[in-house]
Every structure is written in C-alpha cells, then in structure tokens.
Amino acid sequence: MASRKGSRGAGGSPSPGSKRESKHGGSKNGKKEGLSGSSFFTWFMVIALLGVWTSVAVVWFELVDYEEVLAKAKDFRYNLSEVLQGKLGIYDADGDGDFDVEDAKVLLGEEPGGVAKKKTKVKGLKERSVPAQPPSPDSEETIQAAEKPYVESEHKNADIELEEEVQSVLREALHSQPDADLLADDLGAMESEPYEAPVSYDYDMDAEKTITDPEVPEDTVHEDYNEDHEPKHEKQTETQDTAVEDLPEEVNEAMEPDEIIEDFDIDKEPSVESKHTEDVVATEPEESEIPVQAEDYSNDDLVGKSEKETEQDKTEKAKKKKKPKLLNKFDKTIKAELDAAEKLRKKGKVEEALRAFEALVNQYPQSPRARYGKAQSEDDLAEKMRSNEMLQKAINTYDEVVSLPNVPSDLIKLSLKREADRQQFLGRMRGSLITLQKLVQLFPDDTSFKNDLGVGYLLIGDNSNAKKVYEEVLSLAPNDGFAKVHYGFILKAENKIAESIPYLKEGLESGDPGTDDGRFYFHLGDALQRMGDKEAYKWYELGYQRGHFASVWQRSLYNVKGLKAQPWWTARETGYTELVKSLEKNWKLIRDEGLAVMDKKRNLFLPEDENLREKGDWSQFTLWQQGRKNENACKSVPKTCALLERFPEATGCRRGQIKYSIMHPGTHVWPHTGPTNCRLRMHLGLVIPKEGCRIRCAQENRTWEEGKVLIFDDSFEHEVWQDAANYRLIFIVDVWHPELTAQQRRTLPAI
User: Fold this and answer.
1) Can you name the residues that pair with 658 across neighbouring β-strands?
2) For residue 739, what are the CA distances in angstroms to 278, 560, 575?
3) What angle, rounded to 10 degrees, do the helices at 518-530 and 497-510 form?
4) What is the pLDDT of residue 50?
5) Nearest of 721, 719, 722, 736 to residue 681 by alpha carbon
6) Rounded CA gap, 511 and 491, in Å?
7) Residue 500 near residue 488 (C-beta atoms within 8 A)
8) What share of the chain is helix, strand, coil (3-state, %, to 5)?
C-alpha cells in the first residue's frame, strides 16, 4: 500500500507545485512554453471569419444606413465649412479688414502680378509658406504643411487637417465667387452678354404671302434686298427669345422660383427674325426650306475673328455694358405679383400667364412691365395658336407700353424692337419702318438702331435713304462691319462694282454680328469676278464652308435641303420625258409663233434689266411667271400656250418662268446663279447660229441645237457667250425639281 501511495505521489498525480507551474505555462522541467503554431492559426481564422460574417450581417440585414452616414459626413463638411468661414478673418492678406476673393487669390497664389509667395498665420497653426501657383487641376491635393516628425501630438495632426479644410474652403470661395455675383443686387450685378446686331431683313419667307409676291426675272444676282433674304426657320425658332426675354438657364435655376427677371440684355433682342414657323401663314411643307449646312470650317482664318478673340471681345464688352433695367419705381412695389405672372409664362402656361398679366393691367393700368408681360404672352399665344390676329394684338400692346408714363428706357427699346420685328414678320414693312424711325429718334446715339433702320429702308426698296443711313453710321462708327457690308451691297446694286468691294470685304473680315450672311459672300465674289479677280472663289469657298452655299458652284440662296444637285440633266433623269418629247416634236410651231411676235415689233420682248450683261443685247418675252399665266402674252402665241397647258410641272412652277429669249451678237452674260435649287431649266433651241454661241454651267461648256432640249440646274454658276454673226433665239421652260413632293410644290413661296 505504501509503495502504491508513493508511486501515486511521485507519478500518479501531480503535486501542487507542478500544478502551479502548469497553470502559468510552465513545464515539468520548469521552462515556459507559448501557444503552438496550430493554435495561433486557429484563433486567427476564427477572428477572421467572425469579421467576415459580421460584415455580411451588417450589409445583409442593413444594420447600418450607409446613405445616412454619407449624408451626415457631407453635412459635417458643410458645417465645418461654415465654422471655418467664421475664422476666415485671420486670412486677411491685403489688410482691408475682411476676407474676400482677393485675399483668397493671394493665399492660393493666383493673384496676377503678385509676389511669388505670401506668408500668413492661422491661429493654432504654424506659420507656413503658400506657393504662388495653385496645385494641378488634375490633382485634388491641397497645399501641404511642412513635414513633421511622426511622433508629434494628435493635436498637431488635427491642426493640419483643419488647415487643409481651410484651404479647401478658400478654394471653394474663390471659384464659386462668379456664381454668387450673378445673384447679387437683385441680379443687377449680372454680366450681360455682348451685343449682337441682328440681321433684321431675315423675316420669314411665308410672310410674303401677305403682300405681293416678288417677281424675279430669268436669272438674278440678288440685287433686290427684299427678295434675297434666306429664311432660317430652324435656327431662329430655337433662339428667338433666349437672349432678351429669358436669362440663361443657369441663372434661372439659381433664382428664387417666383423672382421676375428685371435685367435684360437689350441689344440681344432678336430683331426682324421670326420665332414663328411657316405655319403661321401657310401650311408647313413636308420639308421646310432651310439653308444648307456647313461641312467644314478649316479655312475660317481667311476672314473674321478667331473664336478665341471673339469670346474675349464678348467678355470685355459684357463687362463694359450698362445693365438694363425694366422696372420703374412703381413696378418694384408690385414685383411679387409680376413675378408670379412671369413664372407662368416661363413655364409655358401661356393662357394662364395672359390672364394674370391682363388682371395686373386692369388693376395697375400705368404699369409698363405688366403691359409688356401682356404683350409677350400674346406674342407667345400667337405662336401657339398660329394666329396672325393674336399677333396683331401683341403688336398693339407692345406699342401701348411706350405710351405709358415713366417707362424705363430699356423697356422702350425692347418693346419697339419687338414691335418692329413682329410687323416685319407680317409683311408690314412700312409700319415696321415707322417703328424703327421712332427708335432712332428716341435713341439717336445708338448706331444699332440706325443699322436696323437702314435695313427697313432696304426692305421697301428705298436704297437711297438706306444709303444715307449707313453713311451716317460709318461717319459715327467707321469700323462698323454691319454698316459696311450693307453699304457695299447698295454700292454694288448701283453698279459701282470697284467701290463696293472694300466695304463688302472689310465688313465680312470684321466678323461683326450680322455680317456672316450668304448675300454678302455672294456679292463680294460676284464683284471680284466682274473685276477679273480670281480671289472670288476663295470667298465662295468660305461661304460654302460656313453653310451659305450648297457648294462653291451652287450658290442659290432659296434652297430645299437634300435635293439632288448636278449641273447638267438628261430628260430621263428628270422624269419629264413627255414634256421634252412634246417640246422637241413641236419646236417649229413654237419657233414660228415666236418669230411672228418679233416681226410685229410690238415691244413684247423686254430687255434684261438685272445687270447680268457685261455687254450686248438680250431680251425676253414671258408667258408664265411664278406659276401665273400672262393671258395677254398668250394671245400672241396661242398654240404654244395651249401646248404647255398639259404640263403642270412647268405651268405650275411658282419658282420659275416660261419665256422666249433672244440674244444678239456681241453679248456676254456674267457668271451668275439662279435664286433657288427647287427648279430645273430647259432650253429649246429655235434659231441657233452654227457657231459662236455657247453656255457654261459649272465647269462644262455646251452648245444649243435647233429642235433639241438642254436641261441644266441654274442654281449652279452659268455663263453665256454670243459671238455669232446672227441672233440666237431659244425657248426657256422652268420645271419643278423632280424630287420635290406635291406638298412642297403647293406650299413653297413663289420666286
């Protein structure tokens, strides 16, 4: 028994001492042991798995609202910014007692002309040097503090973080300053955009339907100002009121919801160009008539200012421009009510806006701004209703604005300019002229109104008074590009070719608003051609690149986009084979009736009077003009007219003519183009000398044959020589371009 106990004591059960050693990690031999490798790995895996499953649980069960956390972080940043704003006074770098943009520029090293470095102190921060150049925009890094040992206190690190936040606020203050300025002083501090003088003669072509359709002879070089204007529906429909009656979208968004727009850029009012589409006066064609679009601007350095220079000029002009005011003292007292009505109009609730402004006019009959808002609402409603009657109401209301007492001068300008514009849209050119004369009388120092008045005279064909107006403008502003191109246009119409060239060229080179017009490129090139200067085609090329011409050779100004364009056509290509066969089959009948008219010497053949001839004798006898039959003329050639009645593509072509044309020896017709790409021209040879007569269209010459039809597109440049020993007699038949739809043929305005 004793031995069994002894053995247990020695080896069967541990002694208290050995238990204590084991408890403290000791071993039987008295040495300490650490955790085994497998135990450490096991605990590491347990902790890692717990972390993973915890993260999964947080996401899966949405234990944390991350959006709320981010929002709070953002709020914290804003709150910190606000707190820091209260401490920005210590950043007063220029000694004016407060922190402003100039201080921020200095601190960020963006002060132009300043020293390379500025030193400033921040409370609780170590003095530091701020470099003059800001950090790269590609980097979000702020200006770093001087390097500190890693062992510096957490307080120092917090100060550095605070300093970085201050720098961020400084940068935000600097770069957000312009936006703040836009809203300062009730929008009075807003920089207005530079003036762009409108090309006021570009009224909608369909307005011509309210007046007599212009008559265009066989070919034209567009000397009649009223006939030349090219409708620009797409462009102007989108931009009609944005510059004057509406502020830019960014400003509107920044405004209070019901704050009325008091400040406008007067000179940006679009004058004499309609926001109404053709539908106001006529049914819209399937494809609107629009100018051809530019393809390339690679040679723009030939003329005008560079884009960068133009933008710089705009910025400089904007800073110098006086900010217009539209509210008088009384209107400021009812500004909230005006705001509410204007808000309706801006939202497109035209009927509600009109009722609101009408109520204001009834309640405050002496309020100019309320009356102007009523006119604008009527103007908008006229477009929506496509009603000329409503548009006339708007014109009357614009006129009423000016008659009220205490009307701000800027509001007078807006009202009268818009009134003149709407009058021109309706084709009431003389009424518009009276309105423009009133503007010039009220504001004699404003040359832009004189420029518009000159256009008004041109639109009624009074070139003499227009010339006087532009001479006056150029005496006051010798570098006015708008006045120069128009003065050059008038000189060329007077056949003063050499004198017109410098005015047209300098006007186009000025790049001034209103000068980039197809007619001026057209007339400058034509004048240069007549002077034998090959530089003409450089201007034609530039006109093409800027979208005024379909090509260098096809320079018509009344175009429908997308029509097939080629100088010469065959009868099969036109689809008018029956007409061609009929003309060629009956050519002797047509010739004999024409010769009989010539023999009677009743002066039925009238000389060409469009200044197309360099020399010689060229006369025409017209049977159809703009789709209208000349009954008296047809009595002299009844069989010819009866023959043509079967072909509406010719007799119904309201952009062409049917006529005899006689050209005598020694005649040269200048290179020229027809007015439109909507027609093709057929020449039937009746009396053709064996040699000496030829026609060039684009770059190909051809000759006539008796009894045969030549077909060409006279919107391409063409030229005629008659150097034979005897006269040449042809029969001209214009037909609709075969690709025009029936709808387009019915609705396109006559030329």
Assistant:
1) 624, 733
2) 21, 10, 10
3) 140
4) 81
5) 736
6) 20
7) yes
8) 50, 10, 40
> Residue 44 and residue 50: Cα distance in Å, rounded?
10
- Give the span between the Cα atoms of 747 and 751, in whole angstroms: 12
Residues 457 and 469 sit within 8 Å (Cβ to Cβ): yes
DSSP 8-state class, residue 8 = I
Tally of residues, the chain: 751
CB neighbour list of residue 170: distance below 8 Å, 6 or more residues apart: 88, 91, 104, 107, 108
**All residues at 6 or more sequence positions from 401 whose CB lies less than 8 Å from its CB, including other chains:** 368, 371, 372, 375, 407, 411, 412, 415
Contact (CB, 8 A) for 385 and 279: no
Amino acid at 603: N
- Nearest CA to 422 out of 400, 395, 398, 402 is that of 395
Three-state secondary structure call for residue 184? coil
294: CB partners within 8 A, 6+ apart: 545, 546, 547
Give Cα 173 to chain centroid, integer Å.
33
Tell me how far apart the alpha carbons of residues 81 and 205 are, in angstroms, rounded to a whole number. 58
Per the listing, tokens 């801006």 go with: 346
645's tokens: 């009645």
How far apart are alpha carbons 213 and 206 in whole angstroms?
A: 10
Cα–Cα distance for residue pair 557/518, rounded to 1 Å? 7
Which strand (E) or helix (H) includes residue 625? strand 618-625
What is the C-alpha to C-alpha distance for residues 560 and 287, in angstroms, rounded to an integer?
7
* CA pseudo-torsion sign 738, 744, 746, 747: negative
DSSP 502-556: HHHHHHHHHT-TT---HHHHHHHHHHHHHTT-TTHHHHHHHHHHTTSSSSSSB--
DSSP secondary structure code for residue 679 in this structure:
E
- Structure-token pair, residue 259: 């704050």
Question: How many whole angstroms separate alpha carbon 7 and alpha carbon 15?
Answer: 12
Pair 559, 547: CB distance under 8 Å = no
pLDDT digits (tens, 9 = 90+) for 603-654: 789 998 888 999 999 999 999 999 999 999 999 999 999 999 999 999 999 9
> pLDDT averaged over the chain?
74
Regarding pTM above 0.90, the answer is: no
> For the purposes of burial, counting CB atoms within 10 Å of the CB of 255, is it exposed (0-12), middle (13-18) or buried (19 or more)?
middle
Contacts of 275 (CB under 8 A, 6+ apart): 236, 237, 240, 241, 383
CA distance 417 to 440: 11
- Please answer whether residues 529 and 498 qualify as being in contact, where contact means their C-beta atoms are separated by less than 8 angstroms: no
Q: Measuring CA to CA, which residue among 453, 444, 450 is closest to residue 474?
A: 450
**pLDDT the model gives residue 69:** 53
Q: Which of 492, 496, 499, 448 is nearest to 470 (CA)?
A: 448
Residue carrying structure tokens 């209070």 = 256
What would the two tokens of residue 489 be?
């246009």
